[in-house]
Design a protein that fits this description.
This protein is 34% helix and 18% strand. It has helices at residues 6-24, 30-51, 55-62, 76-81, 86-95, and strands at 66-70, 73-74, 104-109, 115-119, 142-144, 153-157, 163-166, 182-185.
């Protein structure tokens, strides 16, 4: 369903109705169904031709790509708008070979329902939030704002992926980007 435009969904419903009526009703001749199917197919072809030549109409009918990740940070408003969870995003990224958010320059949720990912070159990768499935790896230690961590290093916000360096035994503060209070140790680049 996520790969269908509004027009394509309407066409499928029209085809179903046009085919179903002659099959189910004795009083509707098959030729009427064939005329309706032909008409709908011609209208769909004409509508696609018009839509493909008008950018505003195309954006209205087919939607636009939404940025889910920018410079290693999750855009939570886009996740909410597209009814995606953090785990949905992580699943998409893992399928592209991503291990942590510091590798991701941009990730877009396309109108086709797929996610396009642009990664940083290896020399530009920074520490970031690990996105591995917790059931297959040791669960990362989750630290709350106000608690002291025992190791110095990079820590990532569990909500937006913001990564910050903390010296040894400094108290963690709420995330400056999203005010979330859960942190975990960042995954370092290779």
């Amino acid at each position: 369903m996520g790969q269908l435009s509004t027009l394509e969904l309407a066409i499928i419903i029209c085809f179903g109705s046009a085919v179903g009526d002659p099959m189910m009703g004795k009083d509707v001749p098959v030729i009427h169904g064939m005329v309706v199917i032909t008409t709908v197919a011609l209208l769909q072809t004409a509508a696609e031709w018009i839509i493909n030549r008008d950018k505003r109409l195309e954006a209205f009918m087919e939607g636009q790509a939404d940025a889910l990740v920018k410079d290693g940070l999750i855009i939570n408003k886009s996740l909410d708008k597209n009814n995606l969870s953090h785990e949905d995003l992580y699943r998409f990224l893992r399928s592209k070979g991503i291990e942590q958010l510091g590798q991701v320059k941009n990730a877009f949720f396309e109108t086709s329902g797929l996610v396009s990912v642009w990664c940083y070159p290896k020399q530009e990768i920074i520490p970031g939030l690990g996105i591995h499935p917790d059931q297959h790896f040791p669960e990362p230690e989750i630290l709350s704002a106000g608690s002291q961590h025992l190791q110095e290093g990079y820590y990532s916000c569990r909500n937006c992926g913001f990564t910050q360096y903390f010296p040894m035994q400094q108290s963690l503060k709420p995330c400056p980007k999203c005010d979330a209070t859960e942190w975990s140790k960042s995954v370092e680049p290779f």
